[in-house]
Every structure is written in structure tokens, then in C-alpha cells.
Amino acid sequence: MHVLLRYLAVMTASTLLAASASAQSAKDIIGPSPLVAIENEAPPQLIVDPPLAEPLSRGLVFIQYRTVNLRVVPVFGKGALDVSPRIGHVHITVDDAPWHFVDASGETIIVVGLPPGPHKVLVELADPTHRVITSQTVAFVVPPKNP
């Protein structure tokens, strides 16, 4: 009897979770279709996470980020300013370097080879002409290497 009750409880919980997950539409998860222009687009947003803990413990900096109301794609130039939904890319600066690198993949940012100690990475969301829209800085410490 107890086994049957547990089974029914698990099945009910699974059904409720599946129903709540399916309540979200594709648009809720992936955003608007890139095939239809958007009137009065909301301003772009940048969300940057701290580095992933496990790789950082080994001296590898993996920073995940996402954008809202802007698609990260490798398209550049003045003509791309009129694309809707809006497109852009990110500029990445490590430790206030006088230069940055550009990423248009939308994938995890990877920085390796930093010495142990405090560091920071500036992530800037930019339009197709490289004009910075918004930015976030992530500070972290690369731990000393174990002998």
C-alpha cells in the first residue's frame, strides 16, 4: 500500500511539473521570432554571472552571460543598426587592459592564463558599430596553484 501511495505521489508531482513547464511558450523561453520586426523594442539588457566555481578552482575563468532584447550575432556595420529584432556583440576587457576582444558567439566567455590573485573582466554589450550600450564588471580571485 505504501509503495502504491509513493508511486501515485511521484506521478502526480511529475504531472504537475510537466504541466507548469509546458505552460511557458517558445516565445517565453527564446524570445521573439527573428523573422518579424519589433515595433518600439525594449532597451537591451546584459546579465553576467560570476565565473563558474569549479573551473575557477583550476585557474580557468568561464563566465556565462545572456542578453535580453538583443541577439548576439557576428554582423557589423552601420547597415545592421536597422535590423529588428536588435543585434549586437560583446566587448571583453580583462584587468583594465588598454585593449579588448570582441565576441559575437553568445557563448561562455573563457579567459585562461591569469596569474593567481584578484582580477576583473568588463563585459560590454555593443551595437553593430561597436557603440557600447551597457556593461557589467565581474570581479573574482584566481586561487593559487596547488603544487
Binned strand content = 25-35%
Assign the CATH class: Mainly Beta
Looking at CATH, the homologous superfamily is: Immunoglobulins
Count of the separate structural domains = 1
Helix/strand class:
alpha+beta
Compute the number of helices: 3
According to CATH, the fold-level topology is Immunoglobulin-like
Strand segment count: 9
What's the helical proportion of residues?
Answer: 10-25%
Helix-strand string: HHEHEEEEEEEE
Could you say which overall geometry the principal axes of the C-alpha atoms support? globular
Q: CATH architecture, please?
A: Sandwich
Supply Rg. Answer: 21 Å
What is the residue-averaged pLDDT? 86
Q: What distance lies between the first and last C-alpha atoms, to the nearest angstrom?
A: 57 Å
Largest sheet: 5 strands, mixed
Uncertain ranges: none
Notes on the protein architecture:
- The chain is α+β, with helices and mostly antiparallel strands and 147 residues long.
- The chain has helices spanning 2-22, 26-30, 53-57; strands spanning 45-48, 61-63, 65-68, 71-72, 87-94, 101-103, 109-111, 117-126, 132-142.
